[in-house]
Every structure is written in C-alpha cells, then in structure tokens.
Write a structure and sequence with these properties.
homodimer, alpha/beta, seven-stranded mixed β-sheet, four-stranded antiparallel β-sheet
C-alpha cells in the first residue's frame, strides 16, 4: 500500500530512534546514562500535582478550543512580567511546543515554500515543515564560530521568492547559542523587510547562564504583524509530560487561520491546561536555583568533553544541550555499536547523533548532541564512558 | 502575509464557530440549550479522578512515544473482550481521535489523492484530509434511505486511480447509521480489492440502541494489512477533555510511517494516558446504563422533531446525533438569527448547521445536526424552542 511521499521524506527522531536498541541493552543488564533526550530530572513544582488533585468537575469535558481561561490569563501574567501585554486572543494553547510547530507550519506553508532556519536545528522542525509540503533552507553555522548566524549577508543569502518564514530558536537547541538583543532585532528586521514571519521558538527562554535577561521576539515594538512565538511549559517548569505549549501572535489574520487547526482537533487536554496554569504562577526565584544547577552541569559537560582527544565543542550560552564533533566516522553507527557491543563496567550512554540536526547533506555525521539534563556526577561518568567508547570504537 | 492555500480551503468547525455569537447572547442574559456539540453530560467514571490523585512521579516526564504501557495493555484488554488480539505495537496513543485522524491522513495521503467517505460526514475529516494535500470524494447518501451507503456499485463509483482509503464511520456521525456485519464486510472487501486502507472510525462503538453487538473492523479475518481503526475514550467514557485516542493497525509498514508523526510530537500527555487506562477497565455493565439513557434521549429527540412541520429525519441506530432537514433556507443564517435576534422566553438553542457535513456543493444547506447529549427534559424544551424559531424565522 502506498504511503505519503511527504511522510517518507521524514525520519524518526534521532532522540528516540535508538530506544529499541536501548531496551535490548537494558535487558542484557547494561546501565544506560541518558544524554540523548531533553528530559529534565528537576522535580515538577508541587502546584501542578495540587491542581490534578483539586480537579473536581463531574465531567472531564472539552476545554474551549481557544484554551482554558485560567491558562490564558496565567500566560498573560507571565508575559506581563517581561513587559509584554497580550490579549487572550493572542494566545492559543497547544499539545506541547511540538503541536505549536505543526500548526504554525501548516498555517503558513504551501507546497514548494521554504523556511530559513540556522543549522544545526531541532530535527522535528524538518518533519513538521516537510509534512506541510515545504522545505528547510538551512543557514550554515559552525562550531568554531560559536554557531553564529545573526549576519544580514548570511541570512539574506538563504532568502528567495519561496521563503515564507525566518525561524529563530533562542536559546538554540542543539547549539546553546543565544542572540543579543541587537542580533535578535536584526533577525526581526530582515524578516520584516522580506515580508516573512519571524518564528521565535523560545521554549528555553529561562535557561541563560551569563546573567543577562533574554529578550523575547514579543518585546520589540513595530513587529507585531510578523512575530510568532512558540512557547511551552515542558522545559521551563520541568513538565514535559504535560504536553502544554502555546502559539502567540498579534497578527489576527494569522491567528484566524491557526484557529482552523485548533478547532479541527477540538481542544488541548483540560486538566493539563489547568495544572499548567498553576506553573506559570511560580515565583521567578524558582528559576534561579534551576539555572544554577544547569550552569553547573553545563560547566561539567564542557570540562569533561575537553578530556576527549579530538573533541570540538563551543560552550553553550543557554538551553541545556551541547553539540560537539567527535573523532569518529559516523555517530549513528557509533551509537548503535555503543548499545549493541560496547560497555564500560556494565555501563554505556546515549546521545543524539548529529546528522538529522543539519539540512545540508553530509554535515553533522561525526557530531553528537548531549542533553545535560542529568546530574553533574552522572554527566562526569557518562562522558568518561563516551571517552572510553571513542577510543575502543576507533581501535576495532 | 501569505497563508497556506490548503489552510485557506479549510473552514472553522460548524460545532464551534458560533461560540462568539453564543457568548454575546449569554451576555444579554439569554439561556442556551447546547445541542451543537457532542459533549456528553454523563459523569466521567471515578477511576479517572483517582488516577489523577494517585499520580506521584516526582517529574511529569515525557511518556514513551509509543504510549504508556499501562494504557497499551488496557486497550489490549478491552479489545480482547471483543475477541481481537493485539500486540502493544499495533496500538499508538494519540491526542484524541482528532489527532489520530490527522496522523493517519498525513501518513497515507499525497497531493491529489482522494479518500472516499459517505456524506454527510464529520466536518473535521475535511480539514485533516485537506491539510494532507488530498480531497474527499463523497458517497452521497439520503435521509429517506436512512443514509444507506454499503452498496458495491455506489461505493465503487467513487473509487478511481487517486483513491487511497475508504473511510467508514460506524456508528455514523452525524447520521447515526450503523452497518450490519455483512455490510461492514462488504466495505472491507471493496477496500481490499482496490488496495485501499479501510479506515474505521469507531469512537461511538458502544452506542448502539437495537441490542445487537456492533462489530469492529478488527474482528474480521483476512484484512489485517488493510484495516486502520481510530478509537477514543472521549465519548465512550465521557472523557472528551482527556484527549486520549488511539490508532490501531496490524500493518507494520503503515505503523512505522505513523511513528514518524508520533515521534515528531514526542508523546501524548503522561497523566491523561494513565488516567484513561483506568477507564478501559470499567465493567461492561457501565455501558448498559449509559446506553439506556442515550436511547431515551434519542427517542425523545425523534418524537419531538416529528412535531416540527416539514422536518425530515431518520431514526439514528447509534452514536448520539440526529441529522434532519428543516423547512428553512439556510441553517447557517438561521443559527445566526437564533443567537442574535430570537429568543423564546429568554431562551434559545444551538445546533450544528448541515452544509459542512457534506462534500457535494450545495447539499445540506437546510439541514442541521443535533447532539442528544443533554437530558431528555432539556431536549424536549430545546426542540420546542427550535420549532418556535422555525415558525418565527419563516414569518420574518
């Protein structure tokens, strides 16, 4: 039976595709350190659980398609805290940031259209863009330059008559690159001048380690018709399993089109929306402790990677990933081997292979993405295992 | 800014698009009887709430992309109860039956492809099919024939070289039509002979009122490579707000492609999956009381509609909707007028206008769909209001 050619052009998630091999390794008694997936180990704040316990409607009924008011208002309060005034109708709750991506791309892209995205990028962008019939035009960046891309000439070289959007992940996944306010304004300017949507994926907004406040695309005046922000409770509040995100835009025509997708899938989960609203009311001091912990982990990660001969990485400024190049032929083969044939005292580790993070064919094959979402001692051990594995792999 | 031409071909949900007008009416103090939306008033079973209270993982982490094992096993147990043996990997949990539709259509449809669906059909099929780049080829049915469509000649007349799937909603929404086992087998035979996926939307499976057990497409042998079933806890357990559905298929190649969508949006909500698992363990006797209540409502609905001169309907055999034709020019205008200008002692009512349920241009304009998901006395009152409104509307 014939399948969709668009779906056939998509791949499995590099974060999840090795799970069957991991399960086999586990069944052989191997312990696995997971640095492949951005699943924080930070405890989800108590108000989430309290909201689950307090839910007492006799019927678990559909939420309103445009979202549960208590969540909309919690999101407004959060944005008011960074100086952004939103109407309820500027916000649409989604099934996680992932569905926000799907609905935004489905809303603006036609067959043959293009989205300009700096590479390396989060691989699921590729799936969402491809299923909308369009393709990604990558802006190449390089580890040696700290994954820098906010340059007019580089970005405009990727814009053509098919371009519909300029995608900015800030802080970046997988690079940890963070735009200065001036750099972000440049990206918004380029988008506006070319009549594009600047789509700002800001799910890692609270995770910046140099002390400076990170600006949102919504904080700049004069771009209201263009800016689309994707946000989520997943990483910010360590509530990935809640699957609650939002699309935010002040462009009414855009939001009217998004509403068709929203109504087509009726609503996001009722209880999860209510429980997520409670998260948005966490005191900002909550982030201080979380940020300190991630900074420690980042520093641990970078220090340990430097112990692997031939490993090249750039210290991430934000989010909780580090991308690095290893002295290996192919990270996909290397991961398979690490799960099937390798162990260090009964232990191995997982990363996300780098190639799916690139849009340019051939790039990233010897690169990996590590998520520093496990504690610092575990990171030390995991990277020691990685070092031993690189040596053993190259001696085969 | 240009939007997707595919999205522009989609419409808002006829069940939800009048909500802004309804809010205006409410703010004028008007009471509204809601027969526009299939939101059951039946209490959600207690085990769902117990599971919410019991959830105590310190982190609300991502569920496995292929689903939480306790839910997969609960679904297997439920299907074992109707004689269908499933592997865990035959089942993929979704964000409601709606996302199941999106992912199935995105998996099998290319631009220019067609899906054969008897009309009238659930309007959100149109959105999901259109966003996948394809279109619906409707099999016309008629109220006077009880919306009969299980006829080889009629169905085959709609199949051509672009056809990829034969869609069967059983019991039907909005018609309440129910296929006999022989009729369902005929549909499966036609699909298999033409190398199509028979997609069986069976979310209303437990709601059949003549006492006969309703067969699932999964209960027929020899169609394992073809059959795709869409199911959901929403209606069955009155848990619409949980947004938990499943795609079920024994076709491994199909499920491998669906997995790309699944991994792209990471997972369905963790807590909702666990709580929904508890629902699947309800004793089958639970449905007896629910079914008796809906049968009473159906009978009330049909009896009251017969009191409206010129109203034509067919007694639904299943689900909880009735489609009927009214002696009016345009149900969309009529609903707008009922919300803006009409009231009967300070009360009005809502239905879903019929036109978006049809794929054939011009059909359904004077038809409406009523959901009998409110109690019998309220149904009596709502249809009295409808009758008064038809008279007043035609006298304007």
């Amino acid at each position: 039976m014939k399948m969709s050619s668009k779906m056939e052009r998509c791949g499995l998630s590099p974060m999840r595709k090795f799970n069957p091999l991991a399960n086999e390794a586990l069944s052989r008694g191997i312990k696995i350190y997971h640095m492949n997936i951005g699943q924080p180990d930070v405890e989800t704040p108590a108000p989430f659980y309290q909201a689950l316990r307090d839910f007492a409607d006799p019927v678990v009924s559909y939420a309103p398609a445009p979202g549960v008011p208590v969540l909309l208002d919690a999101v407004r309060d959060y944005y008011r805290g960074i100086g952004v005034e939103l109407e309820r109708s500027d916000i649409l709750p989604t099934n996680g940031g992932s569905e926000a991506l799907q609905m935004v791309f489905a809303t603006i892209l036609d067959d043959g259209d293009e989205v300009v995205i700096p590479e390396p990028f989060y691989p699921n962008y590729h799936t969402s863009v491809t299923l909308a019939g369009a393709k990604i035009r990558p802006v190449p960046t390089f580890v040696e330059e700290g994954y820098f891309y906010a340059d007019r000439e580089r970005v405009e070289a990727c814009i053509n008559e098919h371009t519909r959007a300029l995608f900015v992940t800030n802080p970046g996944n997988p690079t940890g690159a963070v735009l200065t306010p001036e750099q972000l304004r440049l990206m918004l300017d380029i988008a506006k001048e070319h009549d594009l949507f600047p789509i700002c994926d800001e799910v890692y907004r609270e995770f910046v380690y140099a002390g400076e406040p990170l600006l949102s695309g919504l904080q700049f005046e004069g771009y209201e018709d263009n800016v689309v922000v994707i946000d989520s409770v997943s990483k910010r509040f360590s509530a990935c399993g809640a699957r609650v995100g939002v699309v935010i835009s002040k462009n009414k025509a855009f939001m009217a089109q998004v509403m068709k997708w929203v109504q087509c899938r009726l609503a996001s989960p009722t209880v999860e929306q209510i429980a997520s609203a409670a998260l948005y009311h966490m005191d900002p001091s909550y982030f201080d402790a979380v940020r300190d912990e991630y900074r420690l982990r980042r520093d641990t990660c970078v220090r340990k990677l430097a112990e692997i001969p031939g490993c090249v990485c750039s210290t991430p400024k934000g989010a909780f990933y580090v991308m690095c190049a290893l002295p290996i032929d192919d990270a996909d083969k290397f991961q398979t081997w690490m799960l099937r044939e390798f162990d260090d005292n009964g232990e191995t580790m997982m990363f996300a292979p780098g190639e799916p993070f690139y849009g340019t064919p051939g790039r990233g094959r010897n690169e990996i993405r590590l998520a520093y979402t496990i504690n610092a001692p575990d990171i030390e051990r995991a990277i020691d295992i990685l070092k031993a594995a690189v040596e053993a792999y190259n001696k085969r």
